[in-house]
Amino acid sequence: MKKLGDVLLPDGLQWTDRHDWSPVAQEVARTISGAQVVFCAAITGGRPVTLAAEEGVAWLSLAVVEELSSMAALPGVAYQLEWEESSLLVMFRHHDPPPISVVPIWPHHELFTGTIRLMTV
After folding, report:
1. At 94, is the secondary structure helix, strand, or coil?
2. How many domains does the chain fold into?
3. Of 1, 5, 32, 71, which sees the most CB atoms within 10 A?
């Protein structure tokens, strides 16, 4: 089951960047003497979660799009994302706009393809 808050998401929805992320932040610097200094830390939040409804795989209904748009309009609110057997606390990625982008599969139609941009908190 795939669900964001109380909104049931289509089973065919894809998490496109699920494996394109590293849980470790690393920064490398040089001292005045030329020595290399490496700083490492575990990342505790901010993992991108990009969900895509792609043509022929999954469509978003108008009701789902409107509900997601209403949720995205609330600043700073975190939602529970249930993804198959995982559960994550997420919020919409307003710093990477738009948080939701959709296109009707036909003009004036109530089914959409598109992208939902979230991040873990």
Report:
1. coil
2. 1
3. 71
Question: What distances in angstroms separate CA 104 from CA 20, 60, 108, 113, 115, one per listed residue?
Answer: 28, 9, 7, 6, 12
Q: Residue 2: what pLDDT? A: 97
What 8-state DSSP symbol labels residue 34?
S
With tokens 């409804």, the residue in question is 53
Tokens of 105: 């599969």
Q: What's the confidence (pLDDT) of residue 56? A: 85
Q: Which domain holds residue 100?
A: 2-120
Of 71, 67, 117, nearest to 94 by C-alpha is 117
Q: And the tokens for 68?
A: 């997601």
Strands 48-53 and 14-15: antiparallel
